[in-house]
Amino acid sequence: MPQPSSSRGGLRGLVVDLDPLRLDRQFRLLWSAQLVGSVGAAMAVVALPFELWELTHSSLSIGLLAIVQLVPILLFALGGGAIADAVDRRRLLTVTQTTLATVGLVMALLAAQPNPPVWAFYVVAFVMAGVGSVDSLTRGSTLPRIVPRERLRAAIAVNTMGFTAMSVAGPALAGQVIEWAGVPAAFAFDCACGVASLAAIRMLAPLPPHPDAARPSLRSVAEGLRFVRSRRIVMAAFVIDLDAMIFGMPSSLFPQLALTVFNAGAAGYGLLQAAPAVGAAVGAAFNGWTAQARHAGRGVIWAVAAWGVAIVGFGLATFSFPVALLFLAFAGAADVVSAVLRSSIIQLETPDRLRGRVMSIQTLVVTGGPRLGDAEAAAVAAIAGAQFSVVSGGLLCVAGLAAVVKLFPQLIGHELRHDGAHVDDSADGGEPGEPKAPSEVNTVGGPSESAGAAGPGQTLA
Questions:
Q1: What per-residue string of b and e applies to 132-165 under the rule 16 or more CB within 10 Å gives b?
Q2: Band of the pLDDT at 439, cuts 50, 70, 90?
Q3: Which position has the higher pLDDT, 297 or 407?
Q4: Residue 95 has pLDDT above 90, yes or no
Q5: What is the average pLDDT score of the chain?
Q6: Can you tell me the distance from the alpha carbon of 407 to that of 430, in angstroms, rounded to the nearest whole number?
Q7: What is the pTM of this model?
Q8: Is pLDDT at 5 greater than 70 in this prediction?
Q9: Which class for 417: exposed (0-12), middle (13-18), buried (19 or more C-beta within 10 A)?
Q10: Lesser CB count within 10 Å: N end or C end of the chain?
Q11: DSSP state letter for 451
Q12: Where are the alpha helices (DSSP H) in 16-58?
């Protein structure tokens, strides 16, 4: 039986708990794959809008990119969740990572052309968004299968720390690569990272579906939707994130702000993209307290409020590039707290047989919300200017937060025990998420390693 993580207090309790990396080999491999893959993904996220701006000099073209990426997420995510519940998740991750690496290569070849057609980038972005959404939800639904329940909240924090750290490296590195070697080199780097991530995934043990998993169908998709609708605290976690991302996500304006407001060039654009991730990385490194926090719902509320205020500050700080970066970093730190606490709520409230489908809805939210935010910010900027778009979006985020709290009072009272189990069901409808004993968690994904065990793929990327 896996041993529970030791209690942590004082300053040590603030630092993220690395026990999941030390004890669970399957988690270590998946974390390594995400670590490398997220660097490449961040490179592509930076390079693609920059290339479109260079080709069109229009923020609306970047807003259109957000819409083009949103459509396949809406089309593929829900169906992808049903598939993830019904098939071996390692096999599915192998397919998605192979496709994403190929997409990076295609984008590199396109960008290397003297006059690449703009429409071709939209087509590739369509494929990348659809496959990426399935990849993301599959990873998310895999986590509780490879980590015991008492270490799940720590694993979510470690996962977030790794992702945010690479999200810092990716945009900052992308800006420098674009400055020195051009956009094609950034896309080529994305392809190489995809190949390395695929190698780590292939080293995972098989992850077969739950014995009670439903076959992929419209009925199985509807079952996942009904669960979220009945479980109000899960629905609240999704809605509050949509509020933050739709109104308070100005990343589509970063090329325009970097090149025309701050006059910081491609390197400055990379810094704007990296600044939220820098704050998130610092916040994630000292995010150990979230694994012990009882009042998860209240924590999410305060974190989203801090995000909205920071975005307003960023919009008002166009007089100083360093100050603007500081506000973005503060926003990123608030966002990572929200992300870890929301993920803990969702994972711990969801039974394994439904987890892929619920993660598909989370993927719709966390990938679709920012794209709606990009489109909203670009549209407002085209009418009233970039600064007005940023400031008004931050204010709307805070106003929307008040509406979400009124609509979902469960957020205020929701608590989690230190062992990760849900506490208060009195304010929530629906059945709880079928908690399991720690000894039952890893029966499919493979046993947790002892602290001293060694094996293939143990070295982190």
A1: bbbbbbbbbbbbbbbbbbbbbbbbbbbbbbbbbb
A2: very low
A3: 407
A4: yes
A5: 79
A6: 17
A7: 0.63
A8: no
A9: exposed
A10: N
A11: T
A12: 19-23, 25-56
pLDDT at position 191 over 90:
yes
For the segment 320-338, the average pLDDT, to the nearest whole number, is 91
User: Is 364 a residue whose pLDDT tops 60?
Assistant: yes
Which long-range contacts (C-beta less than 8 Å, at least 24 apart) are formed by 383-389? 386/59, 386/250, 386/253, 386/256, 386/257, 386/261, 387/261, 387/315, 387/316, 387/318, 388/315, 389/250, 389/253, 389/315
Identity of the amino acid at 314: F
Q: Is the pLDDT of residue 226 over 80?
A: yes
pLDDT digit string, tens, across residues 154-167 = 888 788 777 767 76
Position 213 pLDDT exceeds 80: no
Instruction: Provide the CB-side half-sphere exposure for 172 (13 A, CA).
Output: 12
* Residue scoring higher pLDDT (446 or 313): 313
The pLDDT value given to residue 200: 93
pLDDT of 275 higher than 50: yes
Torsion sign (Cα): 263, 265, 269, 270:
negative
